[in-house]
């Protein structure tokens, strides 16, 4: 059943606000929303209030701006649960594993965790904790770091408001927001994320984000290998292979071109 959006103006206005926010590099002011969407300011403030109550947006009082909230991430996760990313990504991850001879996976951001959608094990390689359906703290994993590095600063801060947000496994990885920002700055500079021993002792990973049509991190592709078996040249070669797979998945979902990580 279809209908004219003008027959349900509140629903149409709320969805337009969410779509507009999703296309921005960061939170925006209510006045800009009203101007861009050609809506009365009173209407915009009313809709923002409802969306904030439902968790779809967050208000940043110091900046007087609005950004996407945790419920919006849940919508993204719901999309992931319906498997289109897994279906598109599985053959690419399998091909990556065949080329490099190491285990590979595909994950999405779910709040402060990464959720693994695809896991392809290479023959005679160590067992991993990153099975399908497993969640791990995003700031400790290569996939999570690749995804977090592509978020706008305000969204990153909303995910990590205080020290309690930094879950630990082995005692490694960032433990403060400042440390996380420094780490993610290095990820953006390199074009790929790494971790070594922060999830499982002796194992390391390299990951690259897959970006959607507005440059938002839709997923991340990664491979995991024995940390002591890779020198600096090997890390770079593996990262190049992962980048190729991530770029192809980005293309398949009509995503943003490579190199469009958010600053």
What does this molecule look like?
By secondary structure, the chain is of the alpha+beta class. It has two domains: 5-68, Arc Repressor Mutant, subunit A, CATH 1.10.10; 74-252, Beta-Lactamase. The chain has helices at 9-22, 30-37, 41-53, 70-81, 84-100, 142-148, 153-159, 177-190, 232-252, and strands spanning 57-60, 65-68, 103-110, 113-120, 135-137, 193-196, 203-211, 217-226. It has a six-stranded antiparallel sheet, sandwiched between helices. It has a two-stranded antiparallel ribbon with strand order 1-2. The longest helix has 21 residues, at 232-252. The radius of gyration is 19 Å and the shape is elongated. The model has no long low-confidence stretch (mean pLDDT 86). InterPro entries: GAF-like_dom_sf (IPR029016), HTH_MetabolicPath_Reg (IPR050707), Tscrpt_reg_IclR_C (IPR014757), Tscrpt_reg_IclR_N (IPR005471), WH-like_DNA-bd_sf (IPR036388), WH_DNA-bd_sf (IPR036390). This is IclR family transcriptional regulator. Residues 71-255 form the IclR-ED domain. Keywords: DNA-binding, Transcription, Transcription regulation. Residues 8-70 form the HTH iclR-type domain.
């Amino acid at each position: 059943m279809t209908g004219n959006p003008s027959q349900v103006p509140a629903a149409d206005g709320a969805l337009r606000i969410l779509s507009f926010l999703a296309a921005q590099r960061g939170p925006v002011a209510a006045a800009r929303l009203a101007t861009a969407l050609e809506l009365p300011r009173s209407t915009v403030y009313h809709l923002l209030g409802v969306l904030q109550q439902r968790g779809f947006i967050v208000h940043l009082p110091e900046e007087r701006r609005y950004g996407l909230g945790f419920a919006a991430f849940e919508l993204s996760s719901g999309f992931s649960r319906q498997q289109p990313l897994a279906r598109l990504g599985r053959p690419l991850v399998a091909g990556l594993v065949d080329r490099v001879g190491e285990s590979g996976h595909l994950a999405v951001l779910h709040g402060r965790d990464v959720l693994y959608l695809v896991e392809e094990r290479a023959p005679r390689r160590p067992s991993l904790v990153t099975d399908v359906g497993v969640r791990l703290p995003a700031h400790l994993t290569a996939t999570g770091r690749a995804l977090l590095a592509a978020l706008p600063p305000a969204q990153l801060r909303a995910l990590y408001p205080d020290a309690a947000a930094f879950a630990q496994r082995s005692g490694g990885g960032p433990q403060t927001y400042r440390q996380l920002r420094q780490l993610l700055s290095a990820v953006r500079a390199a074009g790929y994320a790494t971790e070594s021993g922060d999830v499982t002792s002796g194992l390391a990973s390299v990951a690259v984000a897959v970006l959607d049509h507005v440059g938002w991190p839709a997923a991340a592709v990664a491979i995991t290998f024995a940390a002591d078996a890779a020198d600096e040249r090997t890390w770079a070669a593996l990262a190049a292979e992962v980048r190729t797979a991530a770029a192809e998945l980005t293309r398949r979902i009509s995503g943003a071109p490579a190199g469009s990580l958010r600053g």
